[in-house]
Design brief:
The complex is a heterodimer of chains A (248) and B (331).
Chain A (H helix, E strand, L loop, with lengths): L11 E6 L8 H12 L7 E2 L7 E2 L3 E8 L6 E8 L7 H4 L6 E3 L6 E3 L9 H5 L5 E3 L6 E3 L4 H4 L12 H5 L5 E5 L6 H9 L15 E3 L5 H8 L14 H12 L1
Parallel strand pairs in A: 1-11
Antiparallel strand pairs in A: 1-10, 2-3, 4-5, 6-7, 8-9
Chain B lengths: L25 H23 L13 H20 L19 H21 L5 H23 L10 H23 L13 H28 L6 H5 L7 E5 L7 H6 L8 H25 L6 H22 L11
The chains are: A alpha+beta (248), B mainly alpha (331).
């Protein structure tokens, strides 16, 4: 049923630490690798070696530039399904393929029921859902539901592929309903935030924002601007060489 | 800064020329245009097509009208199937009426077609059946509009005005089709010349629909991506303005194809004018001409394709000018 559960027994999700992510894309690749071989149909690409390579990926890392002047920062920004409590992608589904599980809050697609209308992808403000180009059904992050409960795997591997592979420990997995879980503590201590709270989706996943860099404030106080050094005119002998070369 | 299109003195689109938009899929444009008119016509039949109402509108030829309504509505629904990647599973869309507007639409539109078929082909002319048919058409059109109006992620659509827009155009298309059919039966024994009231109703409905469309466009020009910005999408606004430095991939992807569609919107203002002219001004002029000249069967026949073409253009713009919040992660 594509109605949302009134509450879920657990609220499994991720904490993503933007202060730590180095943008190595390992989580992106391991997500793709696990999900093309794991649960459901393979996670397909179209023209992977052709002129217009494209394909379904459940986790992508964007690179943003925020701020100007000395405060400007480059932030690597991993983005996957936020497993929202009020997931709009679930309620719009006409076939019953899109569900939010009452036991752990994971938002899943039943690939055998999906008719590929794409309305759930329109309903998601974050772009967490992508159509499989080969299978014609909607794909999304499963929170590696086929890993986290999988007793055939060593216990250390029973977490989402993106979390398991992150070399910087920028991604954390756990139950947000447990106040003592690492994700709950991180969220509390570092002030974890929701993406686009104005969309009223109540995401489970939380983001930890980059901590303020003290260096930038000191530069600002000293009246120092890095940008002044970016495109400097040559002085002294270099200026003479520059002029001489111009004349040749 | 994106260049803003200010060519139009009236109904001028202010959409940035380089902005992303929803992908205007032909299947959905045809679906909303044709089914809207078909359900509108079915609703007119429901209200005026029963024997008790025949005194009100004597010229509505029931059988051709019903066939037209079924062809338009059914044709539109068939078009919508082409938007599905797995059309053989479309029957499953009947199951989630408790939560999904698309499911409700999938139930109500065929139910309206069944009620219409029962009313006309099984000779079940009764006021109750007519009213049920009218309500089913109203519900189906409203459900269609809510498929879009419910989406908070597309602020341009997320307004009750969208429901009003779809309902107004369904009424306009339905009444115009009914007036067109009525104009073909001037010499049928027992029937008089074209009933002016039908022409007047169609004229007023078309005027009303385009007035709503103009208001809807005005709102669209202001709303953009609503309260959401790259800063709220990333929550990095405390550092300063946010812009995309490195896209997450070198090529395109499904999200960009579907919601980050880039099309030349240089012509958005012109297209609004063309839509209004074809879908509104020409049909109204033809309706007035018919009214003034008395019985001139066929003049209104030109009005219908012009109207439907205008509505289809406005539906193309409905997608091509609407921005999805996912594009905030790509700008």
């Amino acid at each position: 049923m594509t109605s949302l559960p009134a509450s879920t027994d657990r609220r499994l999700g991720l904490v993503i630490d933007l202060d730590i992510c180095v943008g190595c894309q390992a989580c992106v690749v391991n997500c793709k690798a696990w999900n093309t071989g794991g649960y459901g149909a393979p996670l397909a690409d179209s023209e992977p070696w052709g002129e217009n390579p494209s394909g379904a990926w459940l986790n992508r890392v964007h690179g943003f530039e925020a701020g100007t002047g000395n405060a400007a920062a480059i932030i690597h920004f991993p983005k996957s399904c936020l497993h929202c409590d009020d997931a709009p992608c679930v309620t719009v589904c006409p076939t019953g393929a899109s569900i939010k599980r009452s036991e752990d809050g994971i938002v899943l697609v039943d690939e055998a029921k999906c008719m590929g209308c794409g309305l759930c992808a329109w309903a998601c403000p974050y772009g967490a859902r992508e159509m499989d180009p080969a299978e014609g059904v909607m794909k999304k992050c499963t929170l590696c539901v086929d890993r986290i409960y999988n007793e055939n795997l060593p216990e250390i591997d029973r977490e989402p592929a993106c979390v398991r592979t992150c070399p910087a420990n920028a991604r954390h997995f756990g139950d947000f309903d447990d106040p003592d879980s690492p994700v709950s503590r991180l969220t509390r201590e570092r002030g974890g935030v929701d993406l686009m709270p104005e969309q009223a989706t109540r995401p489970v996943n939380k983001y930890l924002l980059p901590t303020e860099r003290d260096g930038a404030a000191k530069l600002e106080a000293d009246g120092f601007n890095l940008a002044d050094y970016a495109d400097r005119e040559p002085h002294g002998i270099l200026a003479w060489v520059d002029r001489a070369l111009e004349r040749i | 800064m994106p260049t803003v299109n200010r060519m139009g003195f009236w109904l001028g689109s202010t959409a940035p020329l380089n902005a992303f938009s929803m992908h205007p899929a032909l299947s959905i444009i045809l679906f909303t245009t044709l089914s809207g008119a078909g359900l509108g016509l079915a609703a007119v039949i429901g209200l005026f097509g029963h024997p008790d109402g025949s005194a009100v509108v004597p010229q509505l030829p029931l059988l051709p009208a019903a066939v037209c309504a079924l062809l338009l509505t059914g044709g539109g629904l068939v078009c919508s199937l082409f938007h599905l990647r797995r059309p053989t599973r479309a029957w499953r869309a009947l199951s989630q009426w408790r939560s999904s507007w698309l499911s409700r639409e999938g139930i109500l539109a065929p139910a309206a077609m069944l009620a219409l078929a029962a009313l006309v082909f099984l000779d079940q002319y009764r006021l109750t059946v007519g009213l049920i048919l009218f309500l089913l058409c109203l519900g189906a059109t409203y459900a269609t509009s809510m498929i879009y109006a419910q989406l908070r992620a597309v602020p341009a659509w997320n307004t009750p005005q969208t429901a009003l827009l779809f309902l107004a155009f369904a009424a306009a298309g339905g009444l115009l089709t009914a007036a067109t059919l009525a104009s073909f039966l001037p010499d049928t024994p027992g029937l008089q010349a074209i009933d002016d009231r039908f022409l007047i109703a169609a004229t007023l409905a078309i005027l009303f629909a385009w007035a709503i469309q103009a208001l809807w466009w005005r709102r669209l020009d202001k709303v953009g991506t609503g309260a959401s910005t790259p800063e709220t999408a990333t929550q990095l606004g405390a550092i300063g303005p946010v812009r995309l430095l490195e896209p997450p991939h070198t090529g395109s992807n499904y999200l960009l194809d579907e919601m980050g569609h880039k099309i030349a919107r240089r012509h958005a203002t012109k297209l609004r004018h063309i839509a209004l002219t074809a879908g509104g001004l020409i049909p109204i002029a033809l309706l007035l001409l018919t009214q003034m000249s008395g019985t001139t069967p066929g003049i209104t026949l030109l009005a219908l394709p012009a109207h439907l073409a205008g509505v289809a253009i406005s539906r193309w713009l409905f997608f091509a000018e609407a921005r999805h919040t996912v594009t905030l992660y790509y700008s």
